[in-house]
Specification:
The complex is a heterotetramer, with 1 copy of chain A, 1 copy of chain B and 2 copies of chain C. Chain B has helices spanning about 45-50, 75-80, 95-100, 115-130, 145-160, 175-190, 205-210, 230-240, 295-300, 325-330, 340-345, 350-355, 365-380, 395-410, 425-440, 455-460, 485-490, and strands at about 5-15, 15-30, 30-35, 60-65, 65, 80-85, 105-110, 115, 165-170, 195-200, 210-215, 220-225, 260-265, 275-280, 285-290, 310-315, 320, 335, 415-420, 445-450, 465-470, 470-475. By secondary structure, chain B is α/β, with parallel strands linked by helices. The complex binds adenosine-5'-triphosphate (ATP) (2 copies) and magnesium ion (2 copies). One magnesium ion (MG) binds near residues 43, 44, 86 and 168 of chain B.
């Protein structure tokens, strides 16, 4: 796994006179985070930085506290820069300010902090915009099929995450924007939370499909749990091709549903590009070059029939994984 | 006669305790062999070694002259060693048949272990008949009264087709009828050539059924005697190492005013039916009756341990309400339960903590003060323990009982209720507990004593109430009391005549 | 009153009256009341579609529940059941994807389940450990290992036959193969618990371990066997689950052990061991699952669903209190 | 051998030799060995940064652990501790944001914790419920309610004073206010458990409930009190946690109850009640946390971290086995 290389780079930290960067993503696993990590590591090596990589298991019960701790640790151990994916804009706001006051430059990615002055730059997709893009595409798709009303379901791993809130907001905004007046005739069901248990989102959606025969579209807001749960629920209820399913982010799991029409289309963020850009921006900051406030990484709309092809390129970016 | 069992030079150490130091035991086929000694003398330990439950540190075991020095429970069973344990050892959730044949059930298919229930119930029925027990093979053991459970233990031992049967204090929770039935079974076994080892603190029983007896003291082998040719006093001296002249050292207090008066007491389960009685200062009131006659229930209600359905309680002439043990304690009533380990003591806590448990007045504790109190009782009651910080579980039965006593002496109690106070307690400790009762009545306190040992009641009580099937059927003064009178009230005193278990 | 366990088998001693009956079957009554209530609230509740859904959702957690009931009877618990299911199920998918034949795949999954069961049982008896804390540890361990091996990513490319393991309709419209497997497991285990040495030893060990030991039962071996069987059942549940999901999902079935334990206890098992039975446990899991199914049909807010699920657990054990004290 | 618990108080009987000492203090030794091992592997481990981190992360789960240790001593458990912490902490943030003063906010949080503790305790004593299953139910319930109230969204706009509750440096670079609060709780509760009637009643009720009841202890009242105190401690932990996070996070602290229980047991408490002590529990939680901290320092794959955390729980209880059987 990734462990070997990490422990080496970490233990070298104090000994070498290389400049130390902290890189703190939410997790280091899965189809989204894995390429990002790989990109960051490769780029840091090229540019001659000592990259300290910090994260915690998805199931960690004190995750937020731990990650705030990583920030504090970076400050205390005199890192020159920190790249962090804050789990909430408010939660990390103060610590980021403390880092700034201590003279450490911060780059945020994946999500931003509240006080944007405190960080040097933000790299990545704006989740509201990504949601909006998906909402738009979905609305256009439904319009194309001549659908003017119906119910819409949503499924997420954890509705309390800020990213999920933003994506939800974005989806509705984009959807309503395209639908215009027709938006009134669509109603949104209670969003499903499955804590990354595909069987839970499957069960919940099966219930919603049973009790809402006019369910017409489902958005899964990310991660393999709800993606799979939603696809399998559509399949088990015999609604393939009748309920349209829109998702976030490429994972190989999507390929399961393409043939049977269990997925309609996704928007994907180029996480490899995010990882690489983060290190580049850091490098610029350290070299005192001019930087932008925001490095948006556009999302890409991929329809079901292109997912396989798209995935082939994408999978090259994964770190050494079994799949 | 053939030497069925020979144990020689058995030694056993537990952490901190030298339980057996070179003990010998020889038992013939077809004899009942008593094993005697004070609490903690090592009787149970010796038997557990024979049963393969503990390995011995040193010493040899021969059964029928075959070397069986290395024992395990399975091997012991295979060799026909049946064990009726001092503590009940039954799986309460299983039925009678399954308990008796646990580990040795008949199978329809031995490999898959599919049980032949018909066969099982048939064999069980046969054993129950031998025991004279009225329970059904399908009864769930947990629902049976203690005496019946005890019989099952015995049934298990004889169902083994045993060559040696060990009875470790089998009569502590049996009534007279049941004891008689047990002795009949033992005699049958004896006729069949089984070697029987019989442990009891009731010397009367030893004289009644034993042929020989081996005495242990402090883990040492004292000697083996022919029971027919020794006196009770000789045996006691061998056990205790000194003379105990008086078995029931009765002294009289000044009988004063009525302190406790009960009217029409009943419980919800119908085990106690409208019982009325009183107790005066300075007297020892005894309660006799067969096991299951409801004596424990009465005192548990009186102590607030179980809810009262009907009846009034007057303490010192005033009507009181007792809903919880705390209420009773506030009225100066205390209860020494029959189940010491289960209800009387926190075995993993220290002597000092147990003694102080009902009487922690200060929210912030002064350990030195509490220790001093415990120390005082340790000295005055002669509690044998390394220190008051020792866990109570490490003490012998008699000393545990004294800790329970100390616990209540430490409160302002005036009415001391003893439920089977000498159950499983050796002669020496018994005498000391009687002395404490004497002391209490001399201080104008009241003692209520429930006992299934009639000699004890006859020896110590000023007045004896007799119970039968939940009713009070008789009241006898000390001077008029005889075993016969008590048994008459206890058996035929109820509504109908109990069929004699013969 | 002192010993509530006793009341379970003691009905023989009592004359049976209606209140008695009511309380003895309280769990069943709760179940029936739930069904009636939900079908009144939503006509869809008793629709074929929903019944089909229900019967396809129950088997996984149901099989885990009967396994754990057997453990509870033996006086032990297993918090790692969910992780074992995920481990074995994901491994099965992996092998199926690699092209191994159905018998090999299923056997391998079951052997894996038995292996983890053996580890649990072995540590518990060898080191006299509390099963709760040991299986809490192995839960983390087993889950961590399978997540590490798969890097937390779903194994996909499940062959058709694997998908059909769970999802083949049998006769009527709402009975599927996994329902049948569940039914078979329930019947078999009910028989085992009541009519075989193995089953009765479970009750003996759970009700008085020392008595069982002194009767010459090799309790250590027995406990290990029970854990192995329970592990095998968890693995079977895992295979059906993955078949249902059509992927190998290493993060799946989290917390199933706790949930199954709640179901078993609602169905009459007790932590102290020695009591409980398979049909009761099935009613327990049906109660919880019907409840969750009903809530999903109503489309309630998922947080409210969570709160209400907690509420039903509390209500179920309170009802059980009245049953115990009838 | 039959009754390992007895060994706890019986050390007086033994002459103390070095093997004895070694085993008695095995948990402490494991802890020291861990510290040495990690500091040899990574020089960062004993860096000020890491020590500071460690001390700021431990208090939340640490305070929950000592509360749960007290419960375990009393023979009960609380799986809802994490939910109580999240509920009370989020409520505190809500009130702080609304502009209430510090004493009001903190008092309110503690009262909320005591309220939930009361609910747990009341149901357990009134209906003679198994604490495990009841608190499993209330865990779902409490969590569901706070998630529903907040709709799962973080409460924001925390005033400065609230943030400073946890995050004020005290003297040296690596000690913060929450560490001090934790230390104060540990000292106070150690005193309470050893030197007050309340504490000794916990041991009495836990080691033999019936004997305690028949000694005139109102065990029902006592158990409710213990749950209320434990709830208050969980609430305190929740407040410090939210202060640390600078938001009111209703989904936070999930599973803390189980983890705290593991720590308490590693530190010498037992499910059966009557044994365990606060300093031991602190060592237990330190062992687990140092281990997790060390793994994070080594930058291990997070799944491996999870697996190894499970491993350390297993190792800790096995070491404890040797301690028990010294
Ligand atoms: N498992 C054990 N661990 C430590 N000490 C023990 C153990 N079992 C017995 N002992 C000690 O060994 C000694 C002998 O105990 P044993 O139970 O054999 O006495 P006994 O003669 O049967 O007494 P009683 O008449 O009270 O039943 C006692 O001091 C007892 O405390
Ligand atoms: N609810 C119950 N379920 C099962 N057994 C019980 C129950 N209540 C009492 N027993 C047992 O039945 C036996 C006889 O009951 P009870 O206590 O009424 O008799 P007693 O007159 O006090 O007899 P003893 O001489 O043993 O004190 C006791 O050993 C008791 O443990
Ligand atoms: Mg004995
Ligand atoms: Mg009695």
């Amino acid at each position: 796994g990734c462990s070997g290389s990490d422990s080496k780079s970490t233990s070298n930290a104090s000994g070498s006179d290389k400049k130390t960067l902290y890189f703190i993503p939410i997790v280091d696993t899965g189809a989204y985070w894995s390429p990002m990590k790989k990109a960051a590591e490769e780029r840091a090596k090229e540019l001659g930085y000592n990259l300290v990589f910090k994260t915690s298991p998805p199931s960690e019960s004190q995750k937020n506290e731990k990650h705030i701790g990583f920030l504090q640790e970076a400050i205390t151990s005199n890192a020159v820069g920190i790249a962090i994916a804050p789990m909430d804009p408010d939660m990390f706001d103060r610590k980021v300010k403390e880092a700034k006051d201590a003279g450490v430059s911060i780059v945020t990615f994946d999500a931003d902090v509240k006080t944007k002055d405190n960080r040097a730059a933000y790299v990545g997709t704006d989740n509201k915009l990504a949601g909006e893009e998906l909402g738009k595409k979905a609305a256009e798709y439904l319009k194309g099929k001549g659908i003017k009303n119906g119910k819409i379901a949503l499924a997420a791993v954890n509705l309390t995450q800020t990213t999920m809130t933003y994506r939800q907001e974005g989806i509705r905004k984009g959807f309503e924007g395209v639908m215009g007046a027709d938006a009134q005739s669509f109603s949104w069901l209670e969003p499903i939370q499955d804590n990354d248990q595909a069987s839970e989102s499957k069960r919940q959606l099966e219930g919603q499909i049973t009790s809402n025969p006019d369910l017409i579209a489902v958005f899964s807001l990310g991660s393999e749990g709800p993606d799979t749960g939603v696809m399998e629920a559509i399949k088990s209820q015999g609604k393939a091709g009748k309920i349209y399913h829109f998702g976030f982010d490429y994972t190989p799991t999507w390929e399961n549903g393409i043939k049977e029409g269990l997925i309609t289309g996704i928007v994907d963020q180029d996480s490899y590009a995010i990882g690489k850009t983060i290190i580049d921006v850091m490098d610029k900051i350290i070299k005192k070059e001019k930087i932008q406030d925001n490095y948006p990484v556009a999302v890409k709309w991929v329809e079901a029939n292109q997912i396989v092809e798209y995935g082939k390129d994408k999978q090259k970016q994964f770190t050494n994984e079994t799949k | 006669m053939q030497k069925r069992l020979r144990m020689a030079g058995i030694e056993k150490r537990f952490p901190g305790v030298y339980a057996l130091r070179g003990v010998n035991l020889e038992v013939n086929a077809g004899e009942v062999h008593g094993l005697l000694g004070e609490n903690g003398a090592g009787k149970s330990t010796l038997m557990k070694i024979l049963g393969g439950i503990y390995p011995q540190d040193k010493g040899e075991i021969f059964i029928n002259d075959v070397d069986c020095t290395v024992m395990t429970p399975e091997r012991a069973q295979a060799l026909g060693v049946g064990f009726v344990h001092q503590e009940l050892n039954l799986a309460e959730a299983l039925n009678v048949a399954e308990n008796i044949f646990m580990g040795r059930m008949p199978y329809k298919n031995k490999l898959l272990g599919i049980i032949d229930y018909q066969e099982l119930y048939r064999s069980t029925q046969a054993i129950l008949k031998k025991l004279g027990s009225k329970v059904k093979p399908t009864d769930i053991v947990g629902t049976l009264p203690t005496a019946q459970k005890q019989l099952l233990e015995i049934g298990r031992a004889i169902s083994l087709d045993a060559k040696i049967v060990i009875f470790d204090e089998p009569t502590t929770s049996l009534g007279n009828d049941d004891v008689a039935a047990l002795f009949k079974i033992i005699n049958t076994l004896k006729q069949d050539g089984v070697a029987i080892i019989y442990i009891s603190h009731r010397l009367k029983e030893i004289f009644e059924i034993c042929d020989h007896a081996t005495v242990l003291r402090d883990g040492q082998y004292i000697g083996t005697v022919d029971v027919k040719s020794v006196s009770q006093n000789t045996l006691i001296t061998m056990m205790v190492g000194r003379d105990i002249t008086e078995l029931f050292p009765k002294e009289y207090g000044n009988i004063g005013e009525t302190i406790l008066e009960i009217q029409g007491l009943s419980d919800y389960a119908g085990r106690v039916k409208s019982v009325s009685f009183y107790a005066k200062r300075g007297e020892i009131v005894g309660f006799a009756g067969l096991v299951g006659s409801g004596r424990t229930e009465i005192v548990r209600m009186l102590f607030g341990a179980d809810p009262i359905s009907q009846g009034t309680i007057k303490v010192r002439g005033e009507k009181v309400t007792i809903n919880t043990p705390k209420d009773a304690i506030n009225q100066g009533i205390c209860l020494l339960t029959e189940d010491r380990k289960g209800q009387g003591l926190s075995l993993i806590m220290s002597v000092a903590e147990n003694i102080n448990m009902p009487n922690m007045q200060d929210a912030i504790l002064k350990h030195s003060k509490l220790k001093a109190i415990a120390e005082k009782f340790r000295v005055s009651l002669r509690i044998k323990t390394a220190s008051v910080d020792t866990a109570v579980g490490n003490l012998s039965g008699g000393n545990q009982q004294k800790v329970v006593l100390a616990k209540w002496l430490n409160t302002a109690s005036e009415v001391f209720i003893f439920d089977e106070p000498t159950k499983g307690i050796d002669v020496g400790a018994k005498a000391e507990i009687y002395q404490i009762m004497n002391q209490l009545v001399k201080e104008n306190k009241t003692v209520i004593m429930i006992s299934s040992e009639l000699p004890e009641l006859l020896g110590m009580a000023d007045r004896i109430y007799v119970m039968c099937e939940g009713r009070l059927t008789g009241e006898i003064l000390k001077q008029d009391a005889t075993q016969g009178k008590i048994m008459a009230f206890a058996t035929v005193g109820g509504h109908h005549v109990e069929p004699k278990a013969q | 009153m002192l010993n509530p366990k006793l009341n379970d088998g003691s009905s023989i001693f009592r004359k049976i009256d209606s209140k008695d009956l009511f309380l003895k079957y309280s769990v069943y009554i709760v179940l029936v009341v739930l069904i009636i209530a939900f079908s009144l609230i939503s006509p869809l509740f008793l629709s074929q579609a929903n019944i089909g859904n229900f019967f396809r959702q129950v088997p996984t957690v149901g099989i885990a529940t009967v396994g754990i009931t057997m453990l509870l009877v033996t006086g032990r618990v297993d918090l790692s059941a969910g992780s074992i299911a995920a481990f074995a199920g994901t491994a099965a998918v992996f092998l199926a994807v690699k092209g191994f034949s159905p018998p090999v795949v299923i056997l391998a999954a079951i052997v894996i389940g038995m292996f983890w069961g053996f580890i649990n049982g072995f540590f518990i008896v060898r080191f006299k450990l509390d099963s709760f804390i040991l299986t809490l540890g192995t839960d983390y361990m087993i889950r961590g290992i399978i997540l590490f091996i798969t890097n937390g990513i779903y194994v996909k490319g499940v062959p058709d036959w694997f998908y059909l393991l769970s999802n083949t309709k049998v006769g009527v419209n709402f009975i599927f193969t996994n329902t049948l497997v569940f039914a078979a497991v329930v019947i078999a285990l009910t028989y085992v618990m009541n009519h075989t040495r193995f089953g009765r030893y479970c009750y003996a060990v759970g009700s008085n371990q020392e008595a069982a030991r002194l009767s010459g039962i090799n309790i250590q071996k027995h406990i290990i066997k029970v854990y192995m069987l329970e592990g095998a059942l968890a693995a079977l549940a895992g295979v059906l689950l993955m078949s249902n999901l059509n992927v190998g999902a290493p993060s799946e079935a989290a917390g199933v052990g706790l949930f199954a334990m709640a179901a078993a206890i609602i169905g009459g098992a007790a932590f102290s061991g020695g009591v409980g039975n398979i049909p009761g446990a099935v009613v327990g899991i049906f109660t919880l699952e019907i409840f969750r199914n009903g809530l999903a049909i109503l489309g309630l807010n998922s947080f409210i669903q969570q709160a209400v699920t907690g509420g039903i657990i509390v209500i179920a054990v309170v009802v059980d209190y009245y049953r115990r004290n009838r």
